[in-house]
Amino acid sequence: MKRKSMVFALAVSLLTAGLFIGVPLTHTAEFIDPFPIMVSDKLFLPYNVKSERWWTGLHIVPVTNSILPVVIEFYHGDNTDPYAEATLVIRGQAGWTGNVEDLLPERVPFRSPSSLNILSDKRFTVTKFIANTGSSSPGFGFQTFYSYSAFDGWPHSD
Length: 158
What we know:
Layout: H1 2-21, E1 29-31, E2 41-48, E3 54-62, E4 67-76, E5 84-91, E6 96-99, E7 114-120, E8 124-132, E9 139-146, E10 148-149
């Protein structure tokens, strides 16, 4: 009995300590079943790759500290219809970080290269990481993209 009480007290102490030092107790993002969102912002990310030597990672963050629902459409080649779609809810500015193929629904293989169309009802940023782990020419690069209005078309003039 005493041992159970000590284990319980230790668990409560660690949980409480986590609250005070800022250790997140839950994930900052979760996948959910598709739901309709009022799309106001979008972002198109071309050329996301995955191979033996190449990989692409993403960090998706809401501009404000809020809940950010996003719909991510995956396109391959010249196809105008997505081969997959995922809905993700990001909670707060910790954002979501992971490999691009981790966004795919279960049992849907990643098709390299893929372009992503990301849609949301709020402003967001995406930092894209591309790395080559090949021994002859390893390298790493990143770029940050900002969402733009889904109603105004492409924000940059030619």
